[in-house]
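User: Earlier you gave me the apo prediction for this protein. Now I'd like the version with adenosine-5'-triphosphate bound, so I can compare the two side by side. Same sequence as before, with the ligand SMILES added.
Assistant: Got it. Here's the input I'm using:
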Amino acid sequence: MSVVAETQHVVRRRRFDTDDRWMISLVVLLVAELLYFNFGISTFWGGGWGTSYSFLGYGESFLFTSMIALGVMFVIFTGDIDLSVGYMAAFAGIMMAEFHIGGMNIWIATVLSIALCAVIGLIQGLVITYFKLESLLVTLAGGFILNSAAVAWEGPVPPYGFPHSYDSALGSGDISGTIQIPNQLIVFAVLAVIATLVVHRTRFGRQLVLVGHNRQAAAYAGVRVSATRVKAFVLSATFSAVAGMCIAANYGTARDDLAPTLLLTAITCVVLGGVDIFGGGGRVPGVIIATFVMGWLAPGLLQDNVNDTWATLIAPGTLLLAALTIKGIVDRRQGVSFRAKTLARFGPGSPTSAHADAGDAPGTGAT
Amino acid sequence: MSVIVKRARAAAALASDRTAEEYAPARYEARTITKSFGGANALTGASVTIEPGEIHTLVGENGAGKSTMLKVMAGIHPQDSGDLVLNGTHLRGLTPRTAIGHGIYLVPQEPSLMLTLSALENLFVGIIPRGSMAFSVDWKAMESSAGAYFQQVGLHIDPWAPASQLSIAEQQLLECARALAHRCNVIFFDEPTSPLTAREADVLFELMRRLRERNFTIAFISHRLEEVLAISDRITVLRDSRVVAHFDNPKQTSHRQLVEAMVGHEIAVRQRRQRDLSGAEAVLELKDLGAPDGAFADISFMARRGEVLGLAGLVGSGRTETAESVFGMRRASGTVLLAGKPYAHRSPSSSIESGLIYLPEDRGHNGVFANVEVVRNITAAFVPHLPKRGQLLHPRAEVEVAEKAARRTRVVAPSLDVPMKALSGGNQQRAMFARWLLAEPKVAIFDEPTRGVDVGAKVDIYGIIDTISDSGVAVVMISSELEELVLLCDRVLAIYEGRIVGEVTGDEITLERLGAMVVGGGASERD
Amino acid sequence: ISTTTASAKGGCIKMLLEFKLQGLPVFEANLKGADQYAKTFNICKPTYGGPASASATGQVSDIQAAIAAHVKVIAMTSDDPQVPATALQSAMKAGIKVVTFDSDVPSARNFFIQDTAYNTIAAGVLKAAVKFAGSSSTIGIMSSTPDATIQLAWIGAMESYAKTNYPQLNGGNFGQIIGYGQSVTATSLTAAESMIHSNPTIKAIIPIDGAAVVGTAEAVSDLSDSGKIGVFGIGDPAPNATYYANGSMQGLFLWNEIGQGALIDCVSELAVENKIKAGTTFTCPGVNWKSLNAPGKWTVAKAASKTTGATKNTIIFSGPLEFTPSNYKQYNF
Amino acid sequence: MLVVVTLAIFGLTSAAQPHFALQGNISFLLASAMPLAVVAVGETVVMLVRGIDLSVAPVLGIAAVSTGFIAQDSHVSVLSMLPLALAIGIGLGFVNGLFVTYARIPPIIATLGTFTVYGGIEQLICNSRTVVTLPTSWINLGTHDFLPDVPYILVPGVLVTIAMALILWRTRWGRSIYAFGANAEAAFRAGIRVKAIEISAYTVCGMLAGLAGLIYVVQVGSAGYNTGSEISIQLQAIACGLIGGTTLTGGKGGVVGSFFAAIFLTVALEGVIVAGIAYQWQSAGVGVLLLVAILIDAYQNRQGRSVSEALRSVLGGHKPVQQEASS
Ligand SMILES: Nc1ncnc2c1ncn2[C@@H]1O[C@H](COP(=O)(O)OP(=O)(O)OP(=O)(O)O)[C@@H](O)[C@H]1O
Ligand SMILES: Nc1ncnc2c1ncn2[C@@H]1O[C@H](COP(=O)(O)OP(=O)(O)OP(=O)(O)O)[C@@H](O)[C@H]1O
Ligand SMILES: [Mg+2]
Ligand SMILES: [Mg+2]
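And here is the structure of the complex with adenosine-5'-triphosphate:
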C-alpha cells in the first residue's frame, strides 16, 4: 500500500441514534401506562404480582399477538409485508387440532403443523419473489385462501378438547412461585431472544436488514435477496404457527375466526416498535416493548371501565397514529423523512442524485 | 397569501400568451444564504449574483453545496437565513411554484420526468393551458404550441410518446423545453452533462449559448472542468458550504487554478503509466457473450493479471450490461472463464466468493445503503465472512475489519458509525472501494468509478486502482471519461452498440483514437 | 373506578352482562329487561359488556377484566362454546357464579337459560310457512354459517318435524335448500337473491338469523315478489317493520327478549345466593312472562332432553312468540 | 376486455343456470355492484397518486349508519341526505390526507390507523343500534328499476364514473393527480402544489366512500356497526383498481376500468355462489381472483401495455404499434 497513504479516523462510541431514542420513548410510555393503571385502577395488580388475571396474567390475552408481531417483523424488516399471519395462526391451530382428533399425538401434531405452515410461508415467499409481485396483495390473497381452508376443515363444529397438559403447557398454565409466570410468557421470551439475536447478531440478520434498506444495493453486494426474503416469510409463518398453537391451547379450541383480528394489532406493534415499514430500520427490542405497551393497553382500559370500542379500537389506533406522527417529526428533524424514504425506494426513474441524498422530496421545501 | 403568490397566479394565468422576453432581463442575487440539513451545514453565508446574459458556473467538490445553492434559489429548499433578490425585489417564502411565477426554473441534476405521461404533458405540467372553462384542459392548444418549444431546444420527438421512451439526453432537453414553456428566463442547470456523451453535451451547450444571446440568466454546475472553462462567463467556487473564490474571466483561468481553489491545496498532475503486461496470464476470459435481448453480442476478450483494461463507449453502448452479465446480475449466453476455469452459473454471491467483484455505476441506487452506518456499508459484501464469536457476530471485530479497509481507501468521516448518507459523494465512493477491497478480488470491474466524484476524490481513486492492479488484480474499468482511460489503462476496448469495435494498447491509447472508436469508426479493427 | 368499589360495598350484586357483540337488537332488548329489573333482584346496574366486534377472544378479555374487578356473577351469551371456557372456569374457581343464556358454554357454567325449546320454535315457524306455501311446496332456509350451533339445532328440529308432518316438502328432502349470509346483511341479500333465482318454484323462505331476516326480506321486495314468496323467520319484529309494512314479511318467531333480561337477573341472584339447583322449580317475583309450562314458574332441568335441547342445569325461558303483520307493532325490540 | 370477460362469466353461468340471466337478476347485479364501484372509483384516485386507502370501509360505514339513522328516525328523502354523506366522506378523507401528507405516515399504515379509529367511531355512532327500518321511499329507490334492467342505483354510479373520468382527463386538477403519481418530485419542481394535490386525492376518495355509504344503505336497506369492514370492501376496491388497469405505482390507469372491474367482481362472486361452490371457499375465490388481478398488474407493468392490448393484438393478429418501442 505505498501509493495510498493511510488516514486515521476515530470510531466514536455509539451515539444515541433515532432508533435508540425511539426505544427509550417506548420504555417511558410503558412505564407511564403501568403507573397510570397502577394508581388509577385498584384491581390492576389483582391478587398480587403475577397471579392470574392481573398484570403478567394478562399476558395470556396478548402474548400470542406479540409472537405474531415478532414473526411479521422479519418480513417488515425486508421491506415486505405479510398480511396472512392471522389466518396462518388460525389455520395452524385447526390443522393441529384436526390431526390430534384424527388420532395423532398432540405434540407430533404441533410440530407437524408448524412445519407445514413454514412450507406455506415458503410457497408464499416463492410466489412473491419469483413472479415479482407485491407482497401486500399476495399475502392478502394467501390469507383469504388459508381462511377458506380453515373454515372448510374445521367443519360445523370447530375442534376442541385437548389434553389438559397441553392446554396448560402452551396456554393458561404458569410456573408457580412467589411470582406466577405464565408459560406463554416463557415461550414468548424464548422467541423474543431468538428474534433479537437472529436480526442483530447473525449473518442472516445482517443480510435481512441490508435487503430492507436497499434491495438493489444488497443484490450488488452479493446478498441473495430473494432467498433472504423467502426466509423471512418462512420465519413469519413459523412464528404465526407457534402463536396459533398457543391460541388453541389457551382457549381449548381452534377456530377460524379467532386469529384474523390479530393481524392489525401485530402490525401496529411492529410499527410502533420503530421498525420502518419500508424495511431496514428499527430494533427488535423496540418491537418487544411495543407489544407490551399495546398488550396492556386494552385490558387496562377495560378494567378502567372504558367502553370496549374505545379500549380495543380507538385507543390503539390513536396511539399508532400519534406515535407515528411524532416519530415522523423527530425523523424529519434528522433530515430523513418517511416521504423521502418512500421516494428513494419507490421513486420512478431515479430522482435521487448520485450521492444518494434523500432529501429532495417535495414538501421538504414547501412550508 | 402574499403579493408574490398573487403575482405568481397572475403570471401563471398569463403564461400561454406571454414570451420570456417580456420579463425584464433578470439579475438574480442570493445574499448570505445559510442552509443546514439536520445540523450539517450545506451553505454558510454564501452569496452569488447571476447577471442577465451570462452563464454563471458553480464549481466545487462533492458536497460543497452547489446543488443546495441552486435549489434554494429555485425555491426547492427554504433557506435558513439570507435573502433572495430578483431585480431588486426580495423573494420571500419561495416555492418552485412561485419561483416559476418569477421566471426561475431549475433543470435538476438528473432529469426527473413523469415517465408514464406523454412528452407533451411533461412539457406543460404545472402550467397546463386553460380551455373554455376555467379549470379544464385545452389539449389542442397544448399540442399545437408544443412543437415550437421542442424545436427551440432541438428535440425531434412524438409529443404523445411516453417520456419513458426518451433517452437520457432527450429527457434533459425536454426539461429545458419545459423551462421555456414555463416562460422562465432564469434557468439553472445542475450537472446536466454528467449522464451525457460529449456530442449530446455539445447540443446542450449550443442551446445554453443561444439562450445567453437572448439575454437569459443562466447558472450551471459541472465537475468537468474543461467544459466549465469553455462555456462559462463567470465562475464561483464553493468549498465546505462557503463561497471561496470568483473567477470573472474564465478564458484566462487555468484548470490548475480552478482545482486549487476547489480543493484548497495543490494537486499533483498525474502522468500516464507505462507497463508491459503482455506476458501475464489471463484471469478473466469472455467468449461470445451475448444478451438475450441483443443489447450486446459476440463480446469476447480477456483480462490479464495486474492489467487495467478499459472499456470505452457511449452511454448505452452495453458495457454495463456486459459487466453485469459477467458478475451474475443478468443472464447472458456465451462462456466466461475465471482463472482458466469455466464459470457457468453466475450470481453476485458466487462471483464475490470466487474473487470477481463489480462496482456498480449507479452508486445511489445500487451501491450504498444510505441510512446504514458506514461500517456496515463497508462490510456488506463480506457478510458471509464476518468474524463470529460462537454462533453470533462479533461487532468489535467487525469494526476493526472495516476500519482497516477504510484506512486503505482514505475514507474521511466523522466516525464510521454515522449513516452513509452523511458522507460526501467522494467519500461514499471511497467507502465502496473499501467494501470491494475486503473481498480480496482477483478480477475487479469498476463501472464509472469516478462519476459524480470531485477532483480530489478522483485522484485518490486513481491511486487505489493503481495499487489494486499492482497487487496483481485484473482491473476492468468502464468509463465514459476518455481522459481517465488514457491516464489509467494498459489496454482499451471500444464498444459500440453492443459490439467490440476496436482495441488499442499502450501508447496507441490517445484521446483522438478513443474518440473515434467510441462512435464506431476509425479504429484498428481487431481480428 | 371509584364507583365500582363503592357499589361493591353497597351490598348489591356486581354482575358482568356479556353479549356476543354490541349492537344486536335482541341483546339490546335483553339489556333493557335486565336494567329494568336490576333493582328487583338486587343487581348493581349491570356492567354492560360485549366485544366491539364479534370475537370470542374479545369476550375473554372482558371476562378477565371482570374477574380482576371481583364481580359476583357473570351472565353471558357466548360466541363460542369452547373459547371462554378456560376463563369462565377460573372465574368459577374464584367463586364467581356463571350464568349463560342464549348460547351456552356447557363445560363452564352454573346455569344456562335456553331461549326456548328447539322443537317448539322449529315447529312454530315451519307450520306457519307451510300454511302459507302449502305442504308440498319448495321452502328454503337462510342461515348465517354452517357452524352456528343453535341454528343447526333449529334446522335439525325443522327437518325432523318436516319428516313426520310434511313429507312432501321440497320433494321429500326438506333442508336441502340452505343459503348462508354469514351474518352480513349484504351477503345475506345476495345469497337470498341467488336462492330465489336458483329455485324458481320457491314459495317461502325461512331466515333464522338477524342479518338473514333483513337480507331475505330485502331480496323479496327487491325482486317485486312481495307477497308471492313468504318470509317466515326467527327474529325480532321492530327492525323489520318496513318489510311488514310493504308486505314482504309474513311472520317472525322469537321469545320475549325483555322478559329474558329479567330472568337473567333473577337466576343470577338466586345463583349467587345458592338458592337453586338441578331439578328444582323456582319463581321470580314480579316476572310473569309465560314460561314453557306455567306463567312465572321455571324448572331447572335435571337431565338432558333430545326434544327440547335442554341439558343439565338448563332453564328453558319460554315458548315461541309469533309476530304477525297484524301484531308486530306491539313489540319494540 | 373486462366487459368481455364479465359477459363471458355471465353467459357461462346463465347457460348452466338459466334463471341467472333473468331480468331481475341483471338489474340486481348491477345495483349490488354500485357501492363497490363508487368506492373503487375513489380508491383509484388514491392509487393514481401512489397511495392506498384502507379506511374507505369504515368511512362508507359511518356515512351509511349516519344517514340511515337520520332517515329511520325522521323519514327524510334520500337526496337530502346526500350532502351529509358527502361531508362525512370529505372530512374523514381529508384527515387521511393530513396524516399522509403532513405527518408523513406511509399511506398503508396511516389508513390502517384511521381504519381502526373510524371503525370505532362507526361503532360509537351505532351505539348498539342497527339501521333497519328505513322509510319505504328509500327501500323503493333501492329496489326499483327506472327502465327494465336499469336500476335507479346504477345512475349515481355511472354518473360518478363518467364525471371522474372527465375530470381526470380534462381538468388541471386531474392532470396534476397523474403528474403527482408519475413522479411526485418532478411535479413539485414543476410548480404543482403537491401537498394540496395529495390531500385532495384522499379527500375525493373519502367523499366517494361517503357517497357509496349512502348508496349502500339504500341498496341493502340496512347498516350496522361493521358495515363496510365486514365485506372488506376496501380490499375489493383495491382489487378493482388493479383489475381495471390502475397500478400501485401511481400515475397510470383510470376510473372507467375500475367501474367495470367492480361489476366484473360482483358478477364473478355471484357466479361463484350460483355455481354452487361451497360458501367456505368463497373467500378463497376472492383470494384467487386477487392473485389473478396482481398477476395482470405485474404483466402490465413489465410489458408496458395492458392485457387487453395484448389480447387484442393476439386476437387481431397484428402487432400493436407500441411494441417495438416498449421492449
Ligand atoms: N436534502 C438533504 N438532506 C440532508 N443533507 C443534504 C440534503 N441535500 C444536501 N445535503 C447535504 O448538504 C451538503 C451539500 O450538498 P449539495 O448537494 O449541495 O452538494 P453539491 O455541491 O451539489 O455536491 P455534488 O457535486 O456531489 O452534487 C452535502 O453534505 C449533502 O450531503
Ligand atoms: N441513456 C440511455 N438511453 C436509452 N437507452 C439506454 C440508456 N442507457 C442504457 N440504455 C439501454 O441499455 C443498453 C445498454 O446500456 P448500458 O448501460 O449497459 O451501456 P453502457 O455502455 O454501460 O453505458 P453507460 O456508459 O451508461 O454505463 C442500451 O443498448 C440501451 O438500450
Ligand atoms: Mg449536486
Ligand atoms: Mg453503464
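For your comparison, keep in mind: Residues 316-327 of chain D have pLDDT under 50 and may be disordered.
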